Task: inverse folding
C-alpha cells in the first residue's frame, strides 16, 4: 500500500517538473489517452532487468526469510523495492551490505545535507547518462526538499556543487588524472570551499553512483514504473515498446528477439566452460614449474594495460544521449580516454604503495567515521563471494578467476599488483568477456544486450550478476584509490 | 637541528655516540633494519636498497645492493631484516612474493644469495630466528607463513593461518620454538615451529587488520600488537587465555611497534597514515606519549632501536625519503607541555579542582581569598614510590563546597518561566518583564527593562525626550522624571544592599569611582569562587542598570571638573568611564539631599556646560533635536547586554536581545549572539526548562541556533510486545514481526501520530481518538477505562 502511494507521489512530482523528466516520445503516448480522463500507467518492462528473463528473477513473495528481511529493510529505507534490489538479491549476502552502505551514505549522519547527497548522486549518474538512477534521485531530491531549479543543470546549483563538477568528470572517466591540485581547488575556494569531511563524503557518493551506473547498464535494469520509460499509458494492444526504450541506449527492441545463446549451439557453449576450467587447472599446476622472468612480468602488465584500450566492441557507434539529463554535465565530449592513445603517459599506480586496506580505509574512516568500515565490508564481500560453482560445475575454486577479473579492471585504470602475473588474464578472460567488462566499467551507457549475451554463454544469470558485482566494486575501489591518494597527498 | 646534542653511552666496552641527524635517500623507504654492531643500517623500499654506516655526525652510504641494469620486482622490498647473529646476512621480502637473502660476504658486486619464490602474493614480513643462524620465516598476503632453512633450496615447512593475509611474523625472543603471526582479519596466532599443522593458540586482538607485533625483549610473556583500529595492545601470553594487560589509544592506525630496550614499559610506534610522528609510549600511561619525534614530513614506515641494550638511539625511515637518527633526549615530551588539571561539579553544586601541586601553591599565594563561604578541603594523594611518574603525579585536590541555599538558582528558573519574550507590543513586554524582575527582588534588572521601554517605545520615547529636555535645561527644576521613579523603585533594593558606604556618597565622585571599582572586583572574585552569581549580579546589575540614566545625568556632575569645551574625540574614554561610575541612585539620593549638589545646581543651570558634555558623547546634534532616536542608545544598550553577559547573567542578555529584536541585533556581531544563545539554552536545559529553551531557539534569528530544533528529531520507540527497540521502522518490529501500534478505533497500524491514554495505554490515530471521545468517555478498546482527551 505504501508502495502505491510512494509511486503516486513520485509520479506527481515527476509531472511537476515535466521539462526535466518529460520524455518527448512518451509525451505523445500520454496525449492519446488524455481523452479517457483517467490515465493508468502500465508497466512497460519485462521484469526488473531487460537482460535477464523475468522468470529467472526471484518473484517477490517467493523469497526465503533472509531475503524477506532484506526486502523489508530496503522497502523501509527507500519506500520502494527498486529493480536494482530485485536483481541484486541473487546475492543476498552482498545485497545486505550494499543496502546498509547506501542507506548510511544517503540517510544517516554525515557532513552533507540530504539534498546535496541526492544531487551528487544525480551528478554522478548523469555522467554516464544513466537515466534510471537520475530519475530515482530526482524524486528523492525533491522529496527531501531540494530546489527544483537546481535540476535545470549544474549551472543552477550552488557554486560549491558546480566546483565538484570537474572532480566528477575526471573521476568518472580518467581517475588517474586526479591530482592534489584538484583537491586543493575544492578545499580552498573561499566561501564555496568544501571541508575535508564533506569532500570525502562527496567522493564516496560519486564513486558509489558511478559504479552503480555501471551495474544498472551492465545488468540492463529496467526503469521503475513511476519513472519515465517505466510505464506507458498506451493500451497494451498498440505496441509493446515505447520508443524511449531504444533511446535509453540499450537497443532493447531489436535485441529482444535474439534468443540468449540462440545462435550458438549448446555444445559449443559447453565446451567454453570446459576450456575455461581446463585453463584454470593448467595455470594452477604450471605455476610452480615455469616462472616468467621479471621483465616479462612487467611487460605483461603493460601489454594488458595497452591492449585493454583496444578492447572495444565492433558496434562502437556513438549513441547520442537523447535524455535531458545531459543538462547535468556540461562537457559531453569528455568521456573515457585510454592511457596512451592520445600520447598521454600515466605512471602506473602501485597497489603496494597505496592500497585500500592500509591507507584508503584509514583516511575515509578518519574523515567520515564508520563509512570506511562499511565500504571495507562491501569490498570484502564482493571480492570473496563465491558459491564454488561455475555454470553446471560444482566445487570449483573460482578465486583465480575472480582475481583475474578484479585485477583486469584495476589494470584498465593503471593500478598494478606487483604479485600478480598479468598473463593469467589473457588465459582466463576471452575477448567477448573483456569487451563486456571494458564497456561496463568505462562506458556503461554503451552496453547492449548482445554484449551481455555473448560472454560466458553457458553461465547462469546469477553468475553474470556476480560478475557485475565484482566489476562495480573493483571500479569503485579504483576510483576511490585515486581520489584518496590525491587527498592524502594534499594533506601531507 | 638546533637541539642537537651529543650522547655517548657506554655499553660494556663499546660506546655509542651520535646526535640527532638525518640524511636524504633517493626514494621512499619501506623498512629499515640495524646490524647487530649498531654501526650500520639497511634501508629498503620500492626503488632503494642501501646500507648506510652510522657515524658520529652523519650517515654515510656504504653499499648499494640494487645492482643490475634492469630493476627487477625482486628488489622492490616490502620488508628487510638483518640477521642478529651474522652481520653478513640479510633477507628482504619483495612485493611480488619473492623472499631474497643477501650475503654481504660475497666477493662479487651482486650480493644476492638465494631466491625463494614460493609465495603467491606479496610477502609482508620476514624474520630471522634470534639465535639460529639459518632459519628464516616469512609471512605473506596469500595467508601462508613459510619457514626456510637457508642451507636448502626451498621451505622447510608451511603454516597456513586459515584466515586472511599475514601482516607480521615475529620469533619469540625467549622461547626457541615459538613465533607469533598477525592477520588482516584481526587475529593473532601463536605457532610452534615444529608443528606446522595447526597453531598453538589463536585470539582476536584487534578490530580490523593487525599490522604489527613485537615480543618484549625481557618479559617472555608479553607481546605488543598494533592495528588499524588505532590501538596498541600488550598481551600477557603466559596465562591460559591471552590477557590484555595494557592498551594505548593512538590517533592513527599503527604500522610498527617496537619495545624500547632497557625500559620495561616503553614502546615506540609509528602510524601508517595521516600522522607522521614517532611516539614512545609508557604503556602504563596510555594517554600522553612519553616522547615524540617530529622530524618526518611524511609517514614513517620503519623504526628500529639502534642497539638492543641502548634506549637512547632510535632510527627511522620514512616515505619522505629520509633516514633519521633520533636521540631520546632531543625528543619533545608532550607531558611537559600538558597542564594536568581537572575540574568537576558535584551533584549538589560542589566543585572539585585538581592541579599540580606546585601550581596550586603559587596560586594560593597570589590569591588571598579569605574564604568566608568557601571551605576548601585539600586532599593529597599518597604516592607510591614504585610508581613511575612521581614527579608528575603529585597533585592537590581542592573541593569547594557550596553553602546551602546560596547556590539556589530559583530566580533563574522563575525568571525564565515568567518572562514574556514575544507576542505582545514591546512596551507591554518590557513592563511585564520589569514586573517579573521586581517581584523576584531583582530591581536592577527591573530597572533595565523599564529603561528599555522608555528608550524604545514611542510614549516612553516622548517621556525620555522630556526628561532629556529637562536635563538639558538644567536639573535646577529638581524633579526630572527619571529621578522620581528611581527614588521610588530603588528604595527597597538599596535597603538590602551592603555596598558603598553611605557617607562616602558625599565625597567627590573620584573617590566614589575608586571605591565602586573596588567593589566590582571583589564581587567578581566572589562570583568566581562560589559559583553563585546572585549577589554579584545584583550589585553589578545595579551598576549597569543605571547606565542610561547615568549617562543622562552625567553632565550634571561631570561639568564641575571638566574644562568648558571638550574635543569630540575624547568622548570615547569618557564614555568608557561611565560604566565604572558609581551607581546612579546613590548620587541621586545623596545629591538630592546634600547641600553640595544644590550649590552646584547653579552651575548646572547654565546651558553651555551641558552642551559641552553632550558633545563629549559625540551627539551634540541631539541637543538641538528635542527627540533622541532610539538608535542613539543602541550602542549603550549593546554595551549593557555585553556587560550582563560578562557578569554571567546571559539570561538578561538573551531576553533583551529577543525582545528588542531588530532594534539591537545588527549592532552585536553574529558570533557573540550565537554564543549567548547557546549558553542560555544550555543553562535552560540544565534546569529542564525544555519549553523555554525551545521557545528561545524558535525566537532566535541566528541560523546556527534555529537549526538546533531541526537536529535529532527522531524518537526511537520500543516494541510493545517484545520491548526491543524498533530500529528500522517505527511501526513494525523486526523481532516479533508484529505491528506495534494499532489504532483502537479502526484496528489499523498507526504510522503517523499516535495518541494514547496515559491511564490505560490504549490509543490510536489522533483523529479517530478525538472523534471517539467526543461521543463516548470510555476507552475505545473496551477496557472500561474512562479516558480523557485534552
Result:
Amino acid at each position: 500500500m505504501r508502495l502505491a502511494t510512494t509511486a503516486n507521489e513520485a509520479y506527481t512530482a515527476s509531472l511537476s517538473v515535466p521539462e526535466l523528466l518529460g520524455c518527448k516520445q512518451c509525451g505523445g503516448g500520454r496525449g492519446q489517452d488524455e481523452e479517457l480522463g483517467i490515465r493508468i500507467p502500465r508497466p512497460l518492462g519485462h521484469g526488473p532487468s531487460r537482460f535477464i528473463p523475468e522468470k529467472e528473477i526471484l518473484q517477490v513473495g517467493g523469497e526465503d526469510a533472509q531475503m524477506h528481511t532484506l526486502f523489508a529493510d530496503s522497502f523501509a529505507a527507500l519506500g520502494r523495492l527498486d529493480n536494482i534490489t530485485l536483481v541484486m538479491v541473487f546475492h543476498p549476502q552482498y545485497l545486505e551490505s550494499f543496502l546498509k552502505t547506501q542507506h548510511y551514505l544517503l540517510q544517516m549522519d554525515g557532513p552533507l545535507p540530504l539534498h546535496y547527497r541526492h544531487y551528487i548522486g544525480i551528478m554522478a549518474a548523469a555522467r554516464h547518462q544513466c537515466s534510471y538512477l537520475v530519475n530515482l534521485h530526482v524524486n528523492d531530491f525533491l522529496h527531501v526538499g531540494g530546489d527544483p531549479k537546481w535540476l535545470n543543470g549544474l549551472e543552477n546549483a550552488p557554486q560549491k556543487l558546480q566546483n565538484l563538477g570537474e572532480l566528477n568528470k575526471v573521476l568518472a572517466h580518467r581517475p588517474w588524472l586526479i591530482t592534489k591540485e584538484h583537491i586543493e581547488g575544492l578545499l580552498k575556494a573561499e566561501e564555496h570551499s568544501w571541508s575535508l569531511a564533506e569532500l570525502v563524503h562527496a567522493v564516496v557518493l560519486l564513486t558509489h553512483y558511478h559504479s552503480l551506473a555501471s551495474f544498472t547498464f551492465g545488468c540492463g535494469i529496467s526503469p521503475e514504473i513511476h519513472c519515465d520509460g517505466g510505464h506507458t499509458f498506451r493500451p497494451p494492444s498498440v505496441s509493446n515498446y515505447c520508443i524511449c526504450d531504444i533511446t535509453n541506449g540499450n537497443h532493447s527492441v531489436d535485441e529482444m528477439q535474439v534468443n540468449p545463446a540462440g545462435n550458438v549451439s549448446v555444445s559449443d557453449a559447453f565446451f567454453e566452460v570446459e576450456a575455461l576450467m581446463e585453463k584454470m587447472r593448467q595455470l594452477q599446476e604450471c605455476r610452480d614449474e615455469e616462472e616468467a622472468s621479471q621483465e616479462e612480468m612487467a611487460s605483461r602488465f603493460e601489454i594488458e594495460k595497452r591492449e585493454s584500450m583496444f578492447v572495444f566492441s565492433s558496434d562502437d557507434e556513438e549513441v547520442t544521449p537523447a535524455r535531458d539529463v545531459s543538462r547535468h554535465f556540461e562537457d559531453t565530449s569528455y568521456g573515457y580516454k585510454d592511457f596512451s592513445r592520445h600520447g598521454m603517459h600515466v605512471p602506473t599506480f602501485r597497489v603496494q604503495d597505496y592500497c585500500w586496506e592500509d591507507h584508503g580505509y584509514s583516511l575515509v574512516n578518519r574523515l567520515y567515521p564508520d563509512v570506511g568500515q562499511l565500504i571495507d565490508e562491501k569490498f570484502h564481500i564482493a571480492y570473496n563471494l563465491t558459491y564454488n560453482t561455475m555454470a553446471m560445475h560444482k566445487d570449483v575454486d573460482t578465486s583465480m578467476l575472480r582475481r583475474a577479473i578484479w585485477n583486469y579492471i584495476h589494470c584498465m585504470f593503471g593500478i598494478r599488483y606487483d604479485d600478480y602475473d598479468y598473463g593469467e588474464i589473457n588465459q582466463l578472460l576471452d575477448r567477448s568477456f573483456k569487451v563486456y567488462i571494458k564497456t561496463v566499467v568505462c562506458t556503461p551507457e554503451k552496453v547492449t544486450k548482445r554484449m551481455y549475451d555473448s560472454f560466458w554463454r553457458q553461465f547462469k544469470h546469477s553468475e553474470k550478476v556476480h560478475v557485475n558485482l565484482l566489476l562495480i566494486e573493483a571500479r569503485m575501489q579504483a576510483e576511490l584509490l585515486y581520489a584518496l591518494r590525491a587527498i592524502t597527498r594534499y594533506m601531507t | 637541528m638546533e637541539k642537537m646534542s651529543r650522547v655517548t653511552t657506554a655499553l660494556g666496552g663499546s660506546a655509542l655516540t651520535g646526535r640527532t641527524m638525518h640524511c636524504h635517500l633517493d626514494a621512499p623507504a619501506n623498512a629499515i633494519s640495524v646490524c647487530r654492531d649498531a654501526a650500520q643500517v639497511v634501508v629498503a623500499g620500492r626503488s632503494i636498497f642501501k646500507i648506510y654506516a652510522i657515524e658520529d655526525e652523519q650517515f654515510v652510504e656504504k653499499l648499494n645492493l640494487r645492482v643490475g641494469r634492469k630493476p627487477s620486482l625482486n628488489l622492490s622490498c616490502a620488508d628487510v631484516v638483518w640477521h642478529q647473529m651474522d652481520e653478513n646476512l640479510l633477507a628482504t621480502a619483495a612485493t611480488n612474493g619473492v623472499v631474497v637473502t643477501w650475503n654481504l660476504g660475497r666477493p662479487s658486486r651482486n650480493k644476492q644469495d638465494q631466491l625463494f619464490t614460493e609465495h603467491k602474493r606479496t610477502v609482508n614480513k620476514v624474520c630471522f630466528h634470534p639465535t639460529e643462524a639459518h632459519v628464516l620465516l616469512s609471512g605473506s598476503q596469500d595467508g601462508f607463513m613459510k619457514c626456510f632453512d637457508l642451507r636448502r633450496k626451498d621451505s622447510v615447512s608451511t603454516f597456513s593461518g586459515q584466515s586472511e593475509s599475514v601482516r607480521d611474523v615475529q620469533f619469540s625472543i625467549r622461547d626457541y620454538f615459538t613465533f607469533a603471526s598477525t592477520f588482516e582479519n584481526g587475529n593473532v596466532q601463536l605457532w610452534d615451529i615444529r608443528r606446522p599443522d595447526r597453531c598453538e593458540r589463536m585470539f582476536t586482538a584487534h578490530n580490523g587488520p593487525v599490522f604489527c607485533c613485537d615480543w618484549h625483549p625481557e618479559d617472555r610473556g608479553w607481546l605488543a600488537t598494533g592495528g588499524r583500529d588505532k590501538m596498541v595492545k600488550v598481551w600477557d601470553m603466559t596465562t591460559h587465555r591471552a590477557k590484555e594487560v595494557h592498551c594505548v589509544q593512538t590517533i592513527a592506525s599503527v604500522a610498527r611497534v617496537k619495545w624500547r630496550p632497557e625500559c620495561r614499559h616503553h614502546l615506540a610506534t609509528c602510524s601508517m597514515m595521516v600522522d607522521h610522528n614517532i611516539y614512545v609510549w609508557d604503556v602504563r600511561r596510555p594517554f600522553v606519549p612519553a616522547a615524540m619525534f617530529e622530524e618526518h614530513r611524511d609517514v614513517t614506515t620503519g623504526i628500529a632501536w639502534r642497539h638492543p641494550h641502548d634506549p637512547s638511539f632510535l632510527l627511522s625511515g620514512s616515505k619522505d625519503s629520509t633516514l633519521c637518527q633520533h636521540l631520546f633526549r632531543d625528543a619533545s615530551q608532550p607531558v611537559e607541555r600538558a597542564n594536568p588539571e581537572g575540574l568537576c561539579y558535584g551533584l549538589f553544586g560542589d566543585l572539585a579542582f585538581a592541579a599540580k601541586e606546585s601550581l596550586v601553591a603559587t596560586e594560593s599565594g597570589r590569591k588571598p581569598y579569605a574564604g568566608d563561604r568557601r571551605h576548601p578541603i585539600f586532599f593529597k594523594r599518597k604516592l607510591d614510590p614504585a610508581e613511575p611518574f612521581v614527579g608528575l603525579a603529585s597533585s592537590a585536590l581542592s573541593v569547594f563546597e557550596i553553602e546551602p541555599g546560596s547556590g539556589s538558582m530559583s530566580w533563574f528558573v522563575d525568571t525564565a518561566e515568567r518572562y514574556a519574550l514575544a507576542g505582545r507590543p514591546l512596551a507591554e513586554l518590557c513592563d511585564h518583564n520589569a514586573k517579573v524582575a521586581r517581584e523576584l527582588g531583582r530591581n536592577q534588572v527591573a530597572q533595565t527593562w523599564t529603561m528599555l521601554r522608555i528608550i524604545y517605545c514611542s510614549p516612553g520615547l516622548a517621556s525620555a525626550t522630556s526628561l532629556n529636555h529637562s536635563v538639558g535645561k538644567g536639573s535646577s527644576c529638581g524633579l526630572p522624571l527619571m529621578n522620581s521613579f528611581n527614588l521610588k523603585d530603588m528604595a527597597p533594593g538599596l535597603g538590602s544592599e551592603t555596598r558603598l558606604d553611605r557617607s562616602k556618597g558625599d565625597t567627590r565622585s573620584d573617590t566614589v569611582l575608586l571605591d565602586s571599582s573596588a567593589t566590582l572586583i571583589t564581587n567578581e572574585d566572589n562570583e568566581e569562587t562560589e559559583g553563585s552569581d546572585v549577589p554579584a549580579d545584583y550589585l553589578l546589575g545595579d551598576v549597569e542598570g543605571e547606565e542610561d540614566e547615568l549617562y543622562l545625568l552625567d553632565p550634571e556632575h561631570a561639568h564641575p571638573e571638566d574644562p568648558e569645551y571638550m574635543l569630540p574625540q575624547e568622548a570615547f574614554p569618557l564614555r568608557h568611564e561611565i560604566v565604572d561610575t558609581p551607581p546612579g541612585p546613590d548620587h541621586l539620593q545623596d545629591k538630592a539631599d546634600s547641600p553640595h549638589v544644590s550649590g552646584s545646581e547653579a552651575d548646572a543651570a547654565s546651558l553651555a556646560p551641558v552642551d559641552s558634555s553632550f558633545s563629549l558623547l559625540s551627539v551634540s546634534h541631539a541637543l538641538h533635536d528635542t527627540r533622541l532616536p532610539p538608535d542613539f542608545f543602541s550602542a549603550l544598550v549593546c554595551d549593557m547586554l555585553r556587560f550582563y553577559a560578562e557578569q554571567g547573567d546571559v539570561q538578561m542578555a538573551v531576553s533583551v536581545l529577543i525582545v528588542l529584536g531588530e532594534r539591537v541585533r545588527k549592532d552585536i556581531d553574529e558570533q557573540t549572539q550565537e554564543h549567548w544563545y547557546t549558553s542560555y539554552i544550555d543553562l535552560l536545559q540544565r534546569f529542564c526548562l525544555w519549553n523555554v529553551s525551545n521557545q528561545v531557539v524558535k525566537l532566535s534569528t541566528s541560523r546556527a541556533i534555529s537549526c538546533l530544533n531541526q537536529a535529532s528529531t527522531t524518537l526511537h520507540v520500543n516494541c510493545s510486545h517484545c520491548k526491543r527497540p524498533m530500529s528500522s521502522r517505527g511501526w513494525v518490529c523486526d523481532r516479533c514481526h508484529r505491528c506495534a501500534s494499532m489504532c483502537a478505533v479502526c484496528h489499523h497500524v498507526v504510522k503517523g501520530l499516535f495518541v494514547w491514554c496515559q491511564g490505560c495505554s490504549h490509543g490510536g490515530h489522533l483523529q479517530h481518538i478525538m472523534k471517539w471521545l467526543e461521543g463516548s468517555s470510555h476507552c475505545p478498546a473496551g477496557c472500561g477505562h474512562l479516558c480523557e482527551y485534552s
User: Anything to note?
Assistant: Residues 409-455+632-710 of chain B form one domain. The longest helix of chain B spans residues 509-530. The CA atoms of residues 130 and 173 of chain B lie 6 Å apart.
